[in-house]
Amino acid sequence: MYQSIILGSVLLVTLYVLKRMRDPKLNLPSLVRYKFPIIGHTFIFLTNSEEFLKQCRKEYGDIFSLYLWGEVKTFIGKEHLQEVLTKDDSFDAGRAFERLLPLNAMLKHLANFKNSTKVLKEYVINKLRTYTERMQKSLNLATRKYIGDCDEPKTIHNIYNIMTRIICIPIADIFVGQEISQYEEIINTFSEFTNDAVKILRIPPVLDFIYPGLQYYINSAILKLGIYNPAIKHEKVLIKHLKNQIYKRLQEKEKYGDSWKRPEDFLQDLIEEEGFDPNNNINYAEIAQKICLFIFVSIHTTASSCAHVIMDLASRPEHIQELYEEQLEVHKEADENGTLPFETLNNMRKLDSFIKESLRLTQNIATLPHVTLKDYTFANGLQIPKDRPVTLYIDDVYLDESLQGPNPKSFEPFRHLGTNAPVTKVSKNYLLFGGGKHACPGRQLAINEVKFFLHNIILKYNLRTESGKIEEPKMFGPMKLPSDAGIIFEKRK
């Protein structure tokens, strides 16, 4: 009986999917042929997505569909992906992300937080110059703590783990202030929250083979019911310290009046918001969850990017001397404490190009998922239905000679010099930060932190891989993860 029920369910889902794929009302993109029923393209996509997508592009053109995890998903190449990035009334990235990870179920108060991008820009991005000295000081202290002086050569494996610890310290300073960012459990929360949050994604969405979206509903229920919610322990840590810190600030402000020295950080900006009432049950959980959201979108991406760049530096030591000479010139502008002025970031042109080239070749093969808000017709006449998952085929842009220049597969560290296109600039041939008006608002913060960190690393150490070879990123499906190969750090003589 159970076998009949399962077989019947699979048959119904298959018929439903086939009906959607063959809707006579729409001029749908071609569905790539597949051999295996039910799993469709899932296995080959996970095991050999680079060659598989390249072949699909060659045979089916710029827009094609795959059957993955029980659902038809459409992939968009270079000729039409800007439509996805700029047509806000037709494509939604937020809804696609929520389908992947039910963050609203994990952080329940986020439903009340509608203007996160505006808040980030106003409270953090517009004040980057203010945070310059503190960021450098925090990075230098963290580097000494987690990498050390390296008087004797020191080998570090899995540089990503070290980078999460280093990168999170200045971020914690900016978001919760200099005082409580010194606590080890606060550092643990900032460095570990994202990895804990995405653990639920390690469960393969096999339930979607039964019915598309079933895995999402199960995951949401698990989080809402508290059966498993990794945010809870981090929220408790934040609330404990936020209560003490907010109380202390309110007391000191009342005591010292106009002579009170206002803390310069994200937390203080939240305290001074119009709706904040210190006399009426402060919602510490909501404040903590706002901070968790920004931890999620900032720490992992910055640490991962920095880990990729360091691995590329160690893999190509022949370029370090040229970068070292540039950073020596830049460092002449530092004050007596070794702190660089904010403006010197613009003088790190060779480093900027190296970072951009590294991130160009380590971005995921296909990423930036969206969902259609309505039936949509592309410029070439192909159509996709409402609620169709859409993924951008990034390699179609990054491996195109007309967009990237000669030898697009080759790592050319100074490819971007003289192009007037720094690593933070969003363009049609560089999609790391998305595009359109929804391009990543925190990209300047992330790249500033990476540059200040690498400035110190290049001046202080010689780097090389333990193997003596070029270490490539680890592949998981279309994702490129930082290599965990050993990097040898040795103090410059």
Automatic annotation (TrEMBL):
<dbReference type="GO" id="GO:0016705">
    <property type="term" value="F:oxidoreductase activity, acting on paired donors, with incorporation or reduction of molecular oxygen"/>
</dbReference>
<feature type="binding site" description="axial binding residue">
    <location>
        <position position="440"/>
    </location>
    <ligand>
        <name>heme</name>
    </ligand>
</feature>
<keyword id="KW-0560">Oxidoreductase</keyword>
<dbReference type="InterPro" id="IPR002403">
    <property type="entry name" value="Cyt_P450_E_grp-IV"/>
</dbReference>
<dbReference type="InterPro" id="IPR017972">
    <property type="entry name" value="Cyt_P450_CS"/>
</dbReference>
<dbReference type="InterPro" id="IPR001128">
    <property type="entry name" value="Cyt_P450"/>
</dbReference>
<dbReference type="Pfam" id="PF00067">
    <property type="entry name" value="p450"/>
</dbReference>
<dbReference type="GO" id="GO:0004497">
    <property type="term" value="F:monooxygenase activity"/>
</dbReference>
<keyword id="KW-0503">Monooxygenase</keyword>
<keyword id="KW-0479">Metal-binding</keyword>
<protein>
    <submittedName>
        <fullName>Cytochrome P450</fullName>
    </submittedName>
</protein>
<keyword id="KW-0408">Iron</keyword>
<keyword id="KW-0349">Heme</keyword>
<dbReference type="GO" id="GO:0020037">
    <property type="term" value="F:heme binding"/>
</dbReference>
<comment type="similarity">
    <text>Belongs to the cytochrome P450 family.</text>
</comment>
<dbReference type="InterPro" id="IPR036396">
    <property type="entry name" value="Cyt_P450_sf"/>
</dbReference>
<dbReference type="GO" id="GO:0005506">
    <property type="term" value="F:iron ion binding"/>
</dbReference>
